[in-house]
User: Fold this.
Amino acid sequence: MCGIVGYIGNKPVYPILINGLKRLEYRGYDSAGVAILGGEPKIYKRKGKVSELDEFAQGQDVEGTIGMGHTRWATHGEPNDVNAHPHMSQNGHFVLIHNGIIENYARIKRYLEHKGYVFQSETDTEVLVNLIEYVYIRGQVSIEVAVRYALSKVVGAYGLVIASPLMPDTLVAARKGSPLVIGIGDGEYFIASDATPIVEHTKSVIYLNNDNVAIIRRGELSLRTIDNDRLEPEVQTLDLGIGDIDKGGYDHFMLKEIFEQPRSIQDTFRGRVSAKHDDIRLGGLHHVMPKLLAAKRFIIIGCGTSWHAGLLGEYLFEQYARVPVEVEYASEFRYRDPLIFADDIIIAISQSGETADTLAAIQLAKKAGATVLGITNVVGSSIPRETDAGVYTHAGPEIGVASTKAFTAQVTVLTMMALMLGRRNGSLSQKDYELNIQELVQVPDKIERILQHNDLFRDIAARYKDSQNFLYLGRGFFFPVALEGALKLKEISYIHAEGYPAAEMKHGPIALIDENMPVVVIASRDKSYEKIVSNIQEVKARKGIVVAVVTEGDTIIREMADHVMEVPHTEPAMAPLLAVVPLQLLSYHIAVMRGCNVDQPRNLAKSVTVE
Ligand code: AGP
Assistant:
C-alpha cells in the first residue's frame, strides 16, 4: 500500500529518494513526502503524485546524504499535505515514515493529549512518533530504547523508518506485519518497503522479519529483536534486474505484463515439468507430499484476483485429483470462526505475499494445526515465510495494479498441482497426465497467437468504451474467468461489470439485458458448449450485444455473436489460461480510451497490507 524508501551513505540523497518513490508509486499514490536528514530535518510533503512533490521540492534545500521518503495510501485521514508522511514529533526530536495501521492509536492519542501533545494531522503515524518522543523524554532513555519500548506498546502493523536530529547519522527501521528490505551497498544502505527502489543500486539485501529492529549508521548495521536480542543479519541476493521493473517500451506496465505472459507462464513451469513431459515435480511441496495425498480436504484462501485463481483451483483439483476443495475469501474465513481440522491442507494464494487478510487467515489455520501451503509471486515476502511449504509462481515483478500475469502464473501452478496430485493418487491415468502436460507446455505459444489479435481487441473496445455496464458469463472452468474479466474491467475503467455463471443468468441478471448491454461470453469449446450456445441465444433474443471468446474456427457462434475473439484449441484444464487473455486486453484498451490511469487506478493499491 504505502511505500517506504530510505538512504544513508555518501551520495546525494534526494535523487535516490525521489526515484525510489517513483518506483514505489504503484503501491499507493495519494500523497508523498521526503525528509532530508543529517542535521535539522528538512521535510517536503505534497498531496498527489510523486512528480508534484518533485516539482515542489525544486529550488528548495535538498542537500544531504541521509533521508527518507514515503508514498501514502490513506487509511487515517484524507489525502492532503498535512496527513502526508514524514511526520515530526511535537518537540522536533523524531521524524517518522510508516506503513500499516496502529490499531490502538486513538487510546494512545487521548493519553498523549492529556500530557499536552497537540496533533496536526489525523494520522496514526503522528501518534506513534509522538509516543516515541514521549517515552524518550519522560523515560530519559536512549533513542533506541525509546523506539523499542514505544513499539512494544502499539497494537497493529508497521514497517517504519525513524530518525532523530539528536542522532544525526542514524536511521532506525522496524517491522511488524508490513514488509521492509534493507539493501547493502558500498558503505551505504537503502531501506524500502519492497525491492523495486533498491535493485538499481545493489542486489545484496536483508529482509527484516517481524519484530526486528535495524539500527543503521553510515557503513554499519546492527539487527536486534524488539526485546533487544542481537540477531545475525542474513544477506540474500536479489533475483531481479532493472529491466524487470521498467516499462520496456510499452505504454503501461499492465500492457507489458499482459504481453509477458508467454514467458512468465514458461517461467512458472520451467524446471517443474520433466524433459519428456511425462511428469510434474514441485520441489517446494516434496516434503509435504504424503500429507497432501492423505488429505481429506483442501481449503484455498485468497483475495481478489488470487481468489479467482483459487476458485479455478477448486474446479481443477476436483476434476483431476478428485479431492474436496473449499474456496474462501481470506477476509471472511478469518472472522467466521471456521472449522479447520489438523489434516486439512490450506493453500494461500497471493501475488504480493503480503495481503493482511490472507496472512491473518494463515495464522488462524496454523493455530488449528493444519498444513499451510503458499502460492506466491514475490520471493522473500511474508507468506512464503509463514507457510509450511509452497510454490513460487516466478512470474517476475508485477507493477500494474490490475493483476494479469500473476493470475495466469497462479493458475499454472494450480493446474500443475491438480494434475500432479491426480496422477499420484491414481485419479488420473498416465496417458491423460501426459496429454495435459504436453498441452501445458504449448500454452505460451498459443498465448503468443492470441496476442497477435490485439488490434482486433482494441477495435472491439472502441465500440463499447462508453457502456455503463458489462456482464461476463462463463460455465465450469470459465466461470472464474468471467469473474476475473469483470474485475479487470471495473478496477481499471470504472465501468460496472459483473461476472456470472452463464446458467444463472436466467435467475436474475437477464433482466438487465437490453440493446445497450455488452455481454461477454466465454464460449470456447468444452463439454458445456451446447449450453453456452443456448445462453448466447437467450441474450440475443433480448437484443443484447454479444462479445464471445470462442475456439479458433468456431463458425456457429461467429454467426450469432456481434464480435468474436478467438483462442486456440487446448485441453479443458488449460483453456482458462487462454480465454482470460482477450479479456485482459479488452479491459486494458477500454480503460486507455476512457483516459483512466491504467497502472494506478483510483483508490486501489497493489498490495493490501491493511485489514
Ligand atoms: C487484482 O487485479 C487486484 N488488484 C486485487 O484484487 C488483488 O488480486 C488482491 O488484492 C490480492 O492481492 P494478492 O494476490 O497480492 O494477495
